[in-house]
Fold these 4 entries.
Entry 1:
Amino acid sequence: MTRPRSTARRAIPAAGLLAIAAFLAWRVPVGLLASVARFVEAGRAVHDGPGEALARQRGPEYAAAVAGIRERLPVDATYVLVSVPGGADMIVRFDLAPRRAVFGGSLRELGAALASGGGRDLPAWTVLADLEPPGPRLVATRDLAARRVER
Amino acid sequence: MNPGAPLAAGLGGVLLFLAAGLGLVELLPALRARPFAARLGWAYLLGVASVPGIVYVLGVAFDVRVRRGVVLAPALVLALAGLVARARRGARLANAPVPPPVGRRAARVAGVITAVLAAGLFAEAATTREMGWDAEMTWSVAARWVRADRSVTPRALTDAGSYVNHPQYPLLLPLAQVAVLETFDAPDDARAIKPLYAAFYAALLLVLFDVARRHAGTAAASLATLALALAPYLLTEKSGGASGAYSDVPLGALWGAGLVLLAGRTTASGGAAAGVLLAAAVLAKNEGLPFAAAALAAGILGVLLDQRERRSRLRSVAVAAVFVLAAAAVLHAWKARIPQRWDEDYAHRLGKVSLAAEAASRLPLLPRAVASETSAWKHWDGLWIAAGIALVAGAKGLRRRIVPPLALAVGASFALYVAALLLSTWGGVEQVPSTWNRLLLQMSVPLGLLLALALREGLRSRGPAFAILAGRPGVEPLLTLRGARRAFPRESLVFLAFLVLTCAATWPWIAHLKDHCSDRGDPYFTSWVLWWDFHQTFHDPLHLFDGNIFFPCKYSLAFSEHDWGLALPMFPLFALGLRPLTAHGVLTLLGFAFSGYGAFRLGRTLTGSLPAAWVAGVFFAFVPYRFGQLPHLVYLSAGWIPILLEALVLFARARTPRRAAWLGVAFFLNGVSVIHWLVLTLIPLALTAVVLAFRERAERDVRGWARGAAAVLAAGIALLPFLLPYRNAALAYGFKRSADEALEFSATPADWLNADPRSHVWRDFGAFPTPPERPLFPGLLLLALPLAAVLLSRPVRPEAQEPAGPAPPPRGPGPARSRGCPPGR
């Protein structure tokens, strides 16, 4: 009677090894395959310039829109950044950095504030963040107030 | 701009920190005697800790501007100081101790695999700019502001009107980014700074391997490190893993390295290294300060538990505490200049909310959320499940002095995490999916070390436990009552192991075994065959082949495989009322396991090596194209082929009557199970017998070979009742396979590159040919392992084959003789 118990008890530590071995048996080929895929992908992207790399990540429209805003806004400029659901404003803020953003709230809030005569100390330019085509847009802050008033 | 510039800057940045860190390592006796690869890991962490750390301190204390000279000066000073120290000490270094050879091969294999993974990660990092959400929101945008203003207090952070998330987030990693870009005059390009993060992956693993090797041995360290290296969340996740630019992997490496230094026995120089690393953790991430405090507490616990080296350890903790306190002071001074906004203020919340009320509402939801993330296949592929099993199974190995300090630090960090969830304004458990896995990464060094210690226990028990699994090669013990009784537990455990692997590989079939099958074609037919074998054997065995289908045709069982040998083990279960489809499912799973067990036996007998046997078994059982045969029970059940070959090998080595009998039995069981395998093994078996006869120099042993031939002949005669009905059916109904049919089902060379679509891993690899039996791609490992064997194995030295001392007494022929024989024997 003691022998089977002893056998099982002695085999318990090996169960841990078996579990890790099963994990490795599954993951080693998958991991190596993923590495091969990464090399292949890297080979395709290695000659990309910064604009092409951004276009590869976010799409050509977004890359073109960001490049356009960068040209119009000096590096040390500030701008109003309108927040949008989904957080595209944070991505756009990164791509426009080191230009500094001032929080504008939502487009509705910003327009309302401007229409009521507020926001006089806001930067002249506002960026409407969008990750989808046509990408972020640069508009004159005062135009947002005018649009709101027109409505 | 030169497209290669980001790649050059990324690589150069890694080398910059490495050079500075190697210099620092040379100045620290606790680290400089370690193996070169380990020193690289420590050096990288120390380099990132020291160079940006010094820039940070200079910027906060003296408003020194962040520019190339300020970055290069500390890096060069440290590198030169290390070179000078090494040159002065050069001769003594040559006598550095060489690690023991035990487990070196495992380390080499783990090292090669990890190097491939790290290289892939680095290639991706240097060529793609995707960094993960938080990286763009917090750290990398801060780096751009710092670089533009050349200050650790840029206007974007100090101007309360600027829109900044987490403005008070510590700047060490953004400063490391700036250091790379400034040093190499690179533009603001994510691809130039991502290699900096990818290198943390390698550094973390090197440090883990180094400390685990010291505490748990090389083999256990290799397994634990490789397991962590392959964790999907660490390897591929952009939002937190090494594939992005979050600060979690850096924090995990810096904090983990400092912690394991303090938790083990170390000197004042080890304390200094731990202090630098923990100080860097403080300056790298918000949770770094409390984590560092937990590490210091762990160090103090180590002091209390260590009677023998209490003073030396106390000194090391004190030295580390100085660095941590200095970093905390710098961080406090820096934060004082940054207006807080757009961030969670936990300290403020602490005074506002009732912790007890939050705990009552949030804590009950926490275990489920945490368990769900920890076991999420897409994040971890079962790593923590396997690690949990290993930790429980190897709990005895955790009775080490280093474990209580590690447990304290990890436990305190987990408690801190829970407290943060309770105080969070974002709803508590809703934060778990985006934070828990990152916390596990931050804890990865101590958790990896604990795993290695547990695995060490499993490896230590190789004596008793593995002897059970490995045992002596050969089947001879099974042919005597006493031998069979002894061998049964070990053989059962091996078979059980393959069964467990089968259940995992075919999951979730085992959970639906009762009434599921792979498709509605062959499995239904085969289920009938199995049941008919059982029914007719006990009702009218002389008319076994006159099935109750295709009436009034005779021999209808001979219209396909009769499967009688496969059905035989199911007879008791049929008698108990098992349904035919369930029996078919059971036999399908057993077919995988038995194939693995058979190949395991053959590998064990041929090489005398347990690892080789397991590799052979696993590959033979789970080779990708086997999954394409799920509906074909007969093709899945290939276990008798390797067992028959093993019987032939054993017989060739010693042509005894007992082994001849076993050869005959194996031949019969192979033939009575699957006629395809009987036919297809005849020629290879005959050729193998000829080769073995000459290899064993037994070609002149006519009497011995006649004994074997007689056994096979007897088995062939015993098979006649199962074969003649096929001849009768062919004659009666004119059944004949045409050459075109044979060609249609024969594989072409291209089919070896076509994977079966049922494989999760290889489903899109190659085309799916028709007929669907033909995809034969065997997987990458089956091709890579022989290459690894050629590259990594070393010839066995003659002196290693025999122990020193008097020659052992001569042993008679038998299975024990082949134990430990060189491969191919």
Entry 2:
Amino acid sequence: MNELTHTASIPRAFFALLRRDLLLAFRRRTELLYPLMFLLVVVSLFPLGIGPGPALLARIAPGVLWIAALLATVISLDSLFRSDFEDGTLEQYLISGHPLTLIALAKTLAHWLVAGLPLVLLSPLLAIWMNLPTRAMGVMVATLALATPILSLIGAIGVGLTVSLRRGGQLLSLLVFPLYVPVLIIATGGIMAAVDDLPYQAFLGLLLAGLITSLTLAPFATAAALKISLS
Amino acid sequence: MLTVSQLTFERYFQPVFKPLDFRLQAGGLLLVTGANGCGKTTLIRLLAGILTASEGSIKSTAAGTAYVGHLLAIKDDLTVVENVRFVRDFLGTGSRAVSEVIEQLGLRRVAHQLARTLSAGQRKRCALARLLLCRVDLWLLDEPYSNLDDEGIGMVDRLLQQHSDNGGGCVVATHGNHRPPIAGRTEIQLISGHRSA
């Protein structure tokens, strides 16, 4: 019995997990719409609350879009490990012998594909609503494309820590929002620079650096957090 | 394949069970019995490595562990086939056909139903697919007979016999009267470690 490999290969397990999570997301697709609807509602409330002056809207557009994106991400985050924790799948991950870090990465990637990517795709429409100048449109999409994965990766650490708590979702937002502040500052700074026709490449470079850092480090922290939550 | 010495686990500074010593040989089966709340599930979770022992040691030479606990790790929004296929691709070696495993579990009729529509016994059978698909030495089964009908109980016994014949070890926790008819069976009764009472 020993001479046989006792467990599936790691890439095979990684893609099996990714495929299953995407299939589950598809089965629960109405749940996927809530964060997007929330995003639409929040962004459309600003012109109503502040007044529909085109110049004013254009000025606040980067901040509004990004804060709405942060809120929508946090709403979608809580489900990342919740059902796995409640139905015992998380225990099975631990026992499987596969590195928990790669499992965390597969789960986070699946989360970004179903929660982050639609947000990036929807953002040009929101930018038009907010009267964001066309020349800044590309940069705004670029900041979201680079930074929404960071939001998922950092958020996953918070989810890992709070998944065993009864009302973990509320604590989660308190935990992760402070960590999102640098991303918010850099991303909106980049869009503002593009609006003002200033060089914006450095902001995108910083976001890319942040993406690479969180991609390499966050899954380890998430795995450690999940282990704490299980014991 | 498993050597446990002076194992204790404390919850809120209370030991859950009295210190434990036992050995599990290849091909052996250890039956853990005891009243509700005496720490059967805790012991199984300790052996699985989900919990960490407060004192004592667990030495395992097993290549791989399969665990079926109270939480069945079945996704309600997936069909039986999809659940089993995920187990095969994620945990198993993938050499067996999914349909064959489902047939063996007696779930052919409900194979394409969502897991949420299954009965408790059918869900249990679906979770047992893990044992058919993983080539691991050590099985940790927490109340494997619960919710199963007579035919299902017979199936679990056959699986245990087969695993034992192949040289695998098994720890089974149960509070029921049914005893798996395995030759190398040993039994320990857990005694609650609470000092008060």
Entry 3:
Amino acid sequence: MKRFCLIIIGTAVSGMACAQPNSTGTLSTPRGPTLISSEHGDFDLAGREAIYRGHVRVDDPQMKLACEQLIADVPLTGGHVNHIVAETNVVIDFMDDKGQTNHATGEKAVYVYSEQGGVTNETMTLMGNPQLDNAQGTLTGDVIVWDRQNNHLTASNQKMIFHQNFNGAAAGGNSPAPAATPATPATPAAAAKATNAPPETMESTNPTAGPSPQP
Amino acid sequence: MGLSTAAGLAVWFAAAGVHAQQSGHATNFTTTEYYPDQKHVKSILSGSEAFSRPDQTLVVKQLKLQTFDPEGKPGMVLTAPECIYDEKHGTASSPGSLQVQNSVGTFRAEGQGFLWRQTNNFLTISNDVHTLIEDRAKANLRS
């Protein structure tokens, strides 16, 4: 299986549709419970803040998160946590609306949820050598922001390494059924056109320069 | 610290500023702490039973601790099968299990071993902490 990698180096903050906007609105509907587990917990009942330490695990319907320390506000009446800070060896696994697995790592992640004027904002900001991997490639940058309401990713000083091959199957093998996905570009230029990045910012590299090759 | 204490059946050792020197027993034990304005309740600690100990602490069975914000709105509710309540130092602790939840039950946490500090309303759960957070809309559907 032949494959190649494309490297995009961007210098400015730019939007990149690694995941399609969620047009179904499923994120705004009630979802299942969130479970947080840890070895130790401190709860400021007056300030309504919880600090979890030691092998912290968050199991949410939309994602799984692991870290060493997590600080979350405690909802007084409603069930929605508005602010979460995860620190030290942060690992996040989530699925986009196509069912594609995404794996993100960093030293810190900040989750913010707010409702203002009927508009819901929900973001997860990953920092500290953040990196996001999925079947399409690897995204790094100074900061990676995941807009959970629109299922959209942005990154500052982004660097994207695409994983693709020539025989029509995306690397990673967890993309939707072939009929539902566009054909894999046969050339680097076609691959560039298939992304949001300008083609001139892309360049092909030696296959060995990319992330772990597929067997 | 704006503290008043009362016990349902045996108030003789559970009154405010108690300095129990002898062993005592009370049922329906309740102690209430107020904010500095002395009008709004800060916390209510209650238990089905309370036993005094030689070190002037109390063993409280079936602990229920309710906290309130300065406006009187309910905060968190802590429950535990048993705890040691140290009125002098304003702490409640136990090596056993604990559950804590907000007033509507959309935030629930549990764990093993805890220490609650009355002065700053701070709770530490020592081990095996599990928290369940339910979506507000879902919780409303259940209520």
Entry 4:
Amino acid sequence: MDRENRNVILNTLSILILLGVLFLFHRYGSLYQIRILNNMAIFITLAVSYNLVNGICGQLHLGPNAFITIGAYTAALLTMAPAKKQMLFIIQPLIWPFTVVHAPFLLAILAGGVAATVFAFLISFPVFRVRGDYLAIVTLGFGEVVRVLCNAWQSLTNGPLGLKDLEPYTNLWWSWGVAVFTIVAITKLINSSYGRAMKAIREDEVAAKAMGIDPFRHLLLAFLVSAFFSGVAGALLAHLITTISPTLFTFIFTFNLLSIIVIGGLGSTSGAVIGAVLFAWGGEALRVVESQIDLGFVKIPGIPGMRMVIFSILLMVVIIFARRGIMGRNEFSWDWLLAKMRRGQKG
Amino acid sequence: MVTFFKLDRLVMQFGGLTAVSDFSLELHPGELVGLIGPNGAGKTTVFNLIVGFLTPTSGQVFWLGEDVTGLPPQHITARGIARTFQNIRLFTDMTVLENVMVSLHHKMRAHFWQAMLGLPQYRREDRRIHEEAMGFLQELGLAHLAEEKASSLPYGQQRRLEIARALATHPRLLLLDEPAAGMNPQETQELAGLIRSLRSKYDLTVFLIEHDMKFVMGLCERIKVLDYGVTIAEGTPQQIQCNPEVIKAYLGEPKPAGGTETCSK
Amino acid sequence: MTGTILLQQIINGISLGSLYGLVAIGYTMVYGILRLINFAHGDLLMFAAYAAIFGSAIFGLPWYLSFPLAIIITGILGILLDRAAYKPLREAPRISLLISAIGASFLLENLAVVFIGGVPKGFDRPAVFDHVIEFMGLRIQVLTVYTPLVTIVLLLGLLYIVYRTKVGKAMRAASKDFETTRLMGINLDRIIAITFLLGSSLAAAGGIMWAMKYPQVNPFMGVIPGLKAFIAAVLGGIGNIVGAVVGGFLLGLGEIIIVALVPELAQYRDAVAFVILIVVLLFRPTGIMGEPIIDKT
């Protein structure tokens, strides 16, 4: 059978296996395991879409946390029952029309994505018109602005009190469903002519312009797509943690995402997935460093902040000594796996 | 009558330095014109002014009846002027085929969301781009290298790829910046033949910069000479060869009578 | 709002602005030569404040010893920062440098958390800075007046170095054309180290004065001021030292005056700087004292 058909069959098979595994965990997994799996899926969504701007386009975007926050708040305001909202907004009453809106989860997720995209559009004009370097600071600043807005605009966000008691809609099906869709959609975009244009801009913006590519249009596209999925992920996250507040998605979140895609391999979707998996799993494992380690004969006290120190060092070591990360710019492919297996058989 | 291509008294000043002064040129469809001059004479600056990488201090660029002075490069390319780079600027991490496909992107008729959802409108366009790109590679004798990384190509092939991808933008005017640089005499001969055949096959007008005198004299119908940003001569290869100003600019002093046998006194 | 209150706010704005300016100088100098946004620069502010605290608290040094010591140590930290995080990446793509800078910034902040703890500490303001002067019906903290004065003195000192010494000449050359300067045999590493030393020392001075002004010190105290200082540098024209200070004054003034005029905006204070950045990028991206860009390559 030819390559394309073989790939379609293998991909479908993989998804079925994934569905099976999810079903098993959904039925028999512990709450702890399910939480990690949900986190994993959401981080996959975030990392893959973040990699679109930073890895494929080569622009340093430091504000995904802002779009996650926007998505989270938008979705939360829509899924909460009006009565609950009335109870919750004690400092200042919630503004209309949010007082009466009550939407199903799917709509809320989409609205979260759209809201994030709109905000991304608003700030992208000044940034991409000028020099990509400033993108880093402006997006970083935007994250701060969103935090300030969430804190101050109490009639919309309930200020520092945040929104509590959200319905835990997010389950393995939602989170992994979104993750798979994100991987598929963004991979298709990257492999398309648009993706080639973005890579060209990353390689040599001057030459890209000479070949008729408008850098602004394509960077904007990547930025907006990334913002959309970040908003969606934020919506999922909100209904997983069930409480959101302005201080929840700080720059630390962005930093973690950055570390994920750098370590996984800047420019590789497979790398982003691997990084996200490692992070969700290992990040939990690393928590042990911050709590007491009881070796029986001696107790090593936990050191708060140590986890982040380790992450920072890891990030710097990778970027200085192993810039390409785990995957470099390569992607996983069935060709590669089958070739490896055949070689294994022969040896 | 619609102006095909005209540069009207272009001036480019950087701070106190005048890189190009009072440069004018008219091109007619199908012409093969050369721009020569000593190093640093401002030749590439002229190219950059045409394609919008620089905005002239004064002067205008007319293309197909439109004033395109200072438009951004991607818009100039969309209007049908393509250029190659003196120091090759291929997309090194992409394959040879991908490099050419990039040039075809600006004519893409499907939307990004159609690509993301894998819809047939996009798939059709993608196939079309693939085929067209392979066509250009075949034209330039690079088809067998389609899947190779651009950076792995030997120098001569890279130069061909530069031309291939400029050609793939569907230009009517092609600007070649030192296309023969680093080539041996045989390769240079082949290149001249290639340029002539591309010109007739794709209905191009060609404006090129070169240092290789034999190449330029043998290929171009008309030549302009630049020195320190100033046009010092313009004419047929015959006229340029015998022009004392040109000779002085290149050699620093008028050549003794013996070397210019073909020139009339 | 009365005239005296307005005057008071203007003085406050200038004082705050001079702190931004001091920190902005370091950003602009490093960007001028390396084309790098040193994300960790704001954290040097924090480091200096803690160093000063340790000088007094642990070694019992009087302020006129612990402050200069803290400044020198922070200057050296700046050099080490370059050596560890940026020097290995001189030939690497820009995005790698920026990522390393972010990593370095986070590392500094979290090392502070690990070693000192996240709980804010108080900063002992020396008595000599602690009184209030009165004139023209205004009551002003003496520190508020000292701060811009110190800034101007330091700025003049720096300008002397940059425009009247050989080292300064090399710095200016490297800022204009990195490659050529390197080819001319000038020891670029030394120049870069000196740049970091000077910039970091100034940031340290700013950090100590900041800690005296807002005497609560915590590991993340340098983040927002650092961000604002960078915006000030952009506002003034990135790469331009005087521009950085001018940008700082304008930003500080703008922040204070806007909030004074429209008290409802007080909680959006931090966002004001960001809005100013967007406006600058839209209308004059090279900043107040920069040159307009003509080359689009």
